[in-house]
Design brief:
By secondary structure, the chain is of the alpha/beta class. It is 54% helix and 12% strand. Helix 5 packs parallel to helix 6.
Length: 168
C-alpha cells in the first residue's frame, strides 16, 4: 500500500467517523421509534419514518437502488435483529462520499446482511473491492443472492472470524 492509498484510506476513515457522528446525533432524535419497537426494527419501509424531517429527506432526496430496497425488505421479513441494518439515508451518504473520493477500496466492519456492503460495491468503480469483516456468516448468507443479482459478487471479499478461530 503506497502513501497515497493510505492517505485516502485515512480520509475515508475520518470522513466516516465525522459522518457517523453527525448521523448518530440525527438518529438520537429517532430514539423513541427504535426503543418503542419490540421487534427491534427501526422501520419496515421508508414510508414509516416518524418525524417530519425524516419524511422530507426520504421523499425529496433518497435515491435507493432497487436491489438495495429488495435486500432491506428481505432482511426485515426474514432476519432477526434487523435494527442492525444500515439506514437507507446513511447508505446514500456513504455512496456520495465514495463517489466524491473516487474510492476503489472499502472496508466494512460488521456486515450483517450486507446492505451497506452492497451499497459500497455499487458505488465504487468496476475494478474496486470491498473488504467485509464479520464474526459470523449466518447473517451475511442472506445477502449473497443480492450481490449476485447486482453482479458485484467479485467486488466483495468477506472474512469471518469468531473469537480466534477462522470460520470462512
Amino acid at each position: 500500500m503506497n502513501s497515497k492509498e493510505i492517505s485516502v484510506l485515512a480520509g475515508v476513515s475520518v470522513g466516516s467517523l465525522l459522518a457517523g457522528g453527525l448521523f448518530g446525533y440525527y438518529l438520537s432524535g429517532r430514539k423513541k421509534l427504535i426503543t418503542s419497537n419490540p421487534d427491534n426494527k427501526v422501520h419496515k419501509t421508508t414510508s414509516e419514518f416518524s418525524s417530519d424531517l425524516d419524511k422530507y429527506i426520504v421523499n425529496n432526496s433518497l435515491r435507493e437502488p432497487e436491489i438495495l430496497s429488495e435486500l432491506r425488505k428481505h432482511t426485515f421479513e426474514n432476519v432477526n435483529m434487523s435494527i442492525m441494518l444500515a439506514d437507507p439515508v446513511e447508505a446514500q451518504l456513504f455512496s456520495v462520499i465514495l463517489s466524491v473520493l473516487n474510492a476503489r477500496k472499502c472496508i466494512e466492519v460488521g456486515v450483517y446482511t450486507g446492505y451497506n456492503t452492497l451499497n459500497m460495491a455499487l458505488s465504487i468503480p468496476s475494478d474496486g473491492i470491498v473488504y467485509a469483516l464479520d464474526v459470523s456468516a449466518d447473517y451475511v448468507n442472506h445477502g449473497r443472492k443480492f450481490f449476485e443479482k447486482a453482479m458485484v459478487s467479485e467486488k466483495n471479499r468477506c472474512t469471518y472470524r469468531t473469537c480466534f478461530r477462522h470460520v470462512g
